[in-house]
Specification:
Layout lengths: L9 E2 L8 E2 L9 H47 L2 H6 L4 H31 L2 H27 L1 H18 L9 H13 L15 H6 L31 H41 L7
Antiparallel strand pairs: 1-2
Helix pairs in contact: 1-3, 1-8, 3-4, 4-8
Length: 290
């Protein structure tokens, strides 16, 4: 009795069914299905990679926020002498330092939200992250433009405010009021004298009117030298640099640091926005599985 071969198999030229080629077996998935599964696996790996990228970027934003918070606190605490020396404008500088501190704290919180949202795959957290980062990004662009436009005006305001406090409020090295202490600290720290024209800035000032001296001891290269008597203006006794140049240079050096930090943060925020959009859409897709 001849052996019947299954219709799903194709025999080679041989007797019986000993050598069969499984061409149409149900156990062998079609190539199109394998290709589709391969693409799905590749997309899944891509989304997993983006998930971890968002976690990393969010963590960097968190750290950057902490740095900005530290800069704000440093301006408020570490540069107390400079802030006091600008008199009536000290409140504005205090506000700026507070804004930096609050912005840093906000970025830190934002970084935590993004990091947790990506890790736990919470669409609501990712959406909040995207919206807030977008608003912060736009605000930073506007602030950067304002700083560039009014940079010289701010420098002039600081210079004029400093000059007014030096003329009307500075009382000398032995005074204990806040403005006098601040100016003494500035001239000793930055090794400078006066605001714009060294000893000329003291002409008609409260200090000169009260003491009869042309300059305070803090203007001298060596404040304890006998030659530093407030009258002798021979070369080598006084600092030749005016304080406005030193202060503006100091502020520019700090602005470069803060500007570079802000630029890095903006790039990270832009990348995080794009990744968060992709993750938000992916997590909302039907049939998504981790």
């Amino acid at each position: 009795m001849p052996t019947s071969c299954p219709s799903a198999m194709t025999t080679l030229p041989s007797s019986g069914c000993g050598r069969l080629v499984f061409e149409d077996s149900a156990d062998s998935p079609p190539k199109s299905k394998l290709t589709s599964l391969s693409k799905m696996a590749g997309l899944h790996n891509l989304y997993v990679l983006m998930k971890y990228l968002m976690m990393i970027l969010s963590f960097i934003i968190l750290v950057s926020g902490l740095v900005l918070l530290g800069v704000g606190i440093w301006i408020n605490v570490g540069t107390t002498s400079f802030i006091k020396s600008v008199g009536e404008f000290s409140s504005q500088l205090g506000i700026v330092s507070n804004i930096l501190a609050v912005a840093g704290a906000g970025l830190s919180l934002l970084g935590f939200i993004g990091c947790y949202g990506a890790w736990a795959e919470k669409r609501s957290f990712i959406l909040v992250f995207f919206v807030v980062v977008s608003l912060v990004f736009l605000a930073e662009i506007v602030m950067a433009l304002i700083v560039l436009i009014y940079q010289q005006k701010v420098a002039n305001i600081i210079r004029e405010a400093s000059k007014q406090t030096l003329i009307h409020s500075y009382k000398g090295p032995g005074a204990t009021d806040a403005i006098s202490v601040a100016w003494n600290a500035l001239m000793l720290t930055f090794k400078c004298c006066g605001v714009e024209n060294t000893t000329s800035d003291f002409v008609g000032s409260t200090f000169t009117n009260n003491t009869g001296l042309l300059y305070p001891q803090t203007c001298c290269v060596n404040p304890v030298s006998p030659s530093c008597d407030g009258v002798n203006t021979s070369p080598g006794i006084l600092h030749t640099s005016s304080c406005d140049v030193k202060i503006i240079h100091f502020m520019k050096s700090q602005s470069i640091i803060m500007g570079s930090t802000a630029a890095v943060i903006c790039v990270l925020e832009l990348a995080a926005m794009m990744i968060s959009v992709v993750l938000y859409v992916r997590l909302g897709s039907s049939g998504y599985q981790v």
